[in-house]
Amino acid sequence: MNNREKLQKMDRALRLLEDLKNSQVALIEKSSQLQLDAMEFNFPNMEKNMGDLYTRYNESLDMLNEELERFDIRRNKFEMENGLDKEEED
Question: Which UniProt keywords apply (predicted)?
Answer without folding.
Answer: Coiled coil
